[in-house]
From TrEMBL:
Entry keyword set: Hydrolase
Pfam families given in the database record: Ppx-GppA, Ppx-GppA_III
Region feature (Disordered): 1-21
Domain Ppx/GppA phosphatase C-terminal: 352-492
Domain Ppx/GppA phosphatase N-terminal, residue spans: 45-334
Signal peptide span: none
Superkingdom of the source species: Bacteria
KW Hydrolase (keyword) present: yes
InterPro entries: ATPase_NBD, GppA/Ppx_hydrolase, Ppx_GppA_C, Ppx_GppA_N, PyroPPase_GppA_Ppx
Protein name per UniProt: Ppx/GppA family phosphatase
Length: 539
């Protein structure tokens, strides 16, 4: 998870008190910004030297960034302005708390809108907050991490549901092991735009049933895959779940506290849906758990919730206040080394790329061989000062090695281009959109060094420059096993002034590798500005 550095903010007349509490020795303060299609949330937390995490504050604003976005295929100016205004307030709040790092994620409305990237750039320029745009399955995974962290261990799988404005996520997990991760293109704002734009009063029951049928039609296969994981318990997060829980609690006891109920039953959701459809917006506003900005989206949200319970076969759903922001926080703290657990994320990513490679019929023996070579090559090239690449590119190269032949499912001809396109448009579990773009760029540049950047990979010019260097290393690593026989057993890279010598050891004659590396040596000489040569020996 990337962090953001604060940029210059516009002059403000609002003032804040001093830092609410001094920072203890060895402690760090971090923030999470979760930008959904309906609401934006800020979570402020402190982690001490022993790795104990304390939440300091949570703030939420229903900016409805996705309002009109799905209907018009673009984020709307008014919605973007509302969101930027709240982000400026969030940034000032972070400064007040002495926050050192911000982990910010954006979901469905931003990832789908053609002007989503432009909005991300605007947010960075005007507020200093840099967003990672995450895929739907990655959003589902992070939700499960955040919710499951607050639950006791279980010997059975649980399914986690999060109803957002633009999409609904499901993840099936058993004690941190992700068994399924699905993202449905149905969310309360998206469905409100599609079905309820002209509804200003009571909603006909027939329309509610039409929405349910639409959800079933769009979610048939994802629901099948969730059922196949055999979850025994269902847990729902999000504002929709909280509002339904509050109404269910009021039905049982005549009132509800601000936190809402802790569970809902299937018959309760049916009754609540009936009641919601039979009320006007003004009447809905007086219901427990309701706010002015949720009035227009609660009915489509209830339709999604009820359909999921019916299709997945659950009579009861637990309600939690935890969600995506908690998962982002834990992931960020792990990645930053502030709490233990990064090994789990890396294991998830490795499993994801191996499974993806298998799906596209890549040669797994060759991929494993090349992935080992490219890590060794990266370490030696940096040690010999041949390339100046951030250590993050080491992992990117490892994943690229596993995925660089996925395009074989299309054709061997133009293999790197096919592979790069597949990866750039994938939703690899555990990866941000930015990381998949980096991987795709490295694969592309491993074959096409001088060609213009393809439009399906969106990276900055500096990213492309670094991807070109990383692509050279992948090109060499792949060349060491060009025949897919595993003949090369080891190599050593050594810089000698204006010369670079690669000593290669093989356990058999390797004419294909020899010929390939001879050609690659010319490219390396040109790109490195040093004479690159290969010396062969027997193992």
């Amino acid at each position: 998870m990337e962090t953001a550095q604060y940029g210059p903010l516009p002059a403000e007349t609002e003032t804040f008190p001093d830092n609410p509490s001094p920072l203890p020795p060895g402690a760090h303060r971090v923030a999470v910004v979760d930008l959904g299609s309906n609401s934006i949330r800020l979570l402020l937390a402190q982690v001490d030297a022993q790795g104990r995490v304390q939440v300091l504050n949570c703030v939420k604003s229903m900016v409805k960034l996705g309002e009109g976005a799905f209907e018009n295929d673009a984020l709307q100016p008014a919605a973007m302005d509302r969101t930027i205004a709240v982000l400026k307030t969030f940034a000032r709040t972070c400064r007040m708390y002495g926050v050192e790092q911000i982990a910010a994620v954006a979901t469905a409305s931003v990832r789908e809108a053609p002007n989503g990237r432009a909005f991300v750039e605007r947010a960075k320029l005007e507020t200093g907050v840099r967003f990672n745009v995450i895929s739907g399955p990655e959003e589902a995974r992070l939700v499960s991490i955040g919710v499951e962290a607050g639950l006791p261990l279980s010997d059975h799988p649980r399914v986690f549901m999060d109803i957002g404005g633009g999409s609904t996520e499901f993840a099936v997990s058993r004690n941190g092991e992700i068994l399924a991760a699905e993202s449905l293109h149905v969310g309360c704002v998206r469905l409100a735009d599609r079905f309820f734009r002209k509804e200003n009063g009571k909603v006909p029951r027939s329309l509610f049933e039409e929405v349910q049928n639409y959800v079933r039609e769009k979610s048939f296969l994802p629901f099948e895959r969730v059922r196949a994981s055999r979850p025994a318990e269902m847990i729902a997060s999000s504002g929709t779940a909280g509002a339904l829980g509050a109404m269910a609690e009021a039905m049982r006891h005549g009132s509800s506290d601000d936190q809402g109920g802790r569970y809902v039953l299937l018959d309760e959701v049916r009754a609540i849906s009936e009641r919601l459809c039979g009320t006007t917006p003004a009447e809905r506003l007086r219901l427990p758990g309701m706010s002015a900005r949720r009035v227009d989206v609660i009915i489509p949200g209830a339709a999604i919730f009820l359909t999921a319970m019916e299709e997945l076969g659950f009579d009861r759903v637990e309600i939690t206040e935890r969600g995506l922001r908690d998962g982002v926080l834990l992931q960020h703290l792990e990645n930053s080394g502030l709490i233990p657990g990064k090994a789990r994320e890396r294991e998830q990513k490795i499993n994801a790329v191996k499974g993806f490679a298998r799906t596209f019929s890549a040669d797994l023996f060759h991929a494993k061989k090349v992935s080992g070579f490219v890590l060794q090559l990266f370490d030696q090239a940096r040690s010999e000062s041949l390339v100046e690449l951030d250590p993050v590119w080491r992992d990117i190269l490892f994943y690229a090695a596993w995925l660089q032949e996925t395009g074989i499912a299309i054709s061997y001809h133009n293999l790197a281009e096919h592979s790069a396109y597949i990866v750039a448009n994938s939703e690899l579990l555990g990866f941000t959109e930015y990381e998949t773009q980096q991987i795709a760029a490295v694969i592309f540049r491993s074959r096409y060094q001088g060609r213009e950047e393809p439009g399906y990979i969106a990276l900055s010019s500096n990213d492309w420059k670094e991807a070109a260097l990383a692509g050279l290393l992948l090109k060499v690593a792949e060349g060491l096993d060009k025949s897919h026989r595993g003949a090369v057993t080891d190599f050593n890279l050594e810089a000698r002034g204006r010369q670079v010598v690669m000593g290669v050891r093989a356990d058999s004659e390797s004419p294909i590798e020899r010929e390939n590396l001879t050609r690659i040596a010319k490219t390396m000489t040109s790109r490195l500005g040093r004479t690159f040569s290969v010396v062969w020996s027997a193992s």
